[in-house]
Write a structure and sequence with these properties.
Length: 135
């Protein structure tokens, strides 16, 4: 019997995803992004509600600036984007793939009842589409 192919974001999202608090330093964030090999991370409050997003691109210049001027890097809350494109875990993989075409984020936080429940990346979507195509 063939296993059902993935059809929703819930089927492919990473549940144990890296996230960061708004009071974390940019240096801490940069280390976490490097360790987890991510282009960005959701920013969550103490109740795990999504409050922002911050990417490598958002922080690269500021980390470099802090090195050149030998000062402490800013906090995540100073650089994070408050408007975040997020997705429901019930969204169709093919619908999200359509939305991801073009200059959209590489990582989408997955939110259910205002809480972060995972992330899904372009790579996750691509792998899922290939799986669907092969069935």
């Amino acid at each position: 019997m063939k296993a059902a192919h993935p059809s929703t974001v819930r089927d492919i999202m990473s549940r144990d995803c890296y996230r960061v608090a708004p009071d974390a330093s940019i240096t801490t964030l940069a280390k976490g992004l490097a360790l987890h090999r991510l282009p960005g991370a959701p920013v969550v409050d103490a109740a795990d509600r999504l409050i922002g997003f911050i990417s490598e691109q958002d922080v690269l210049g500021r980390v470099l600036d802090s090195i050149y001027h030998d000062h402490e890097a800013p906090l995540v809350k100073e650089l994070m984007r408050h408007e975040v494109l997020s997705v429901s875990p019930n969204k169709s993989i093919t619908d999200l793939a359509q939305e991801m075409i073009g200059a959209k984020p590489k990582v989408y936080p997955v939110v259910e009842q205002q809480r972060l429940v995972g992330i899904v990346t372009r790579r996750d979507i691509l792998v899922a589409l290939l799986t669907i195509r092969c069935h």
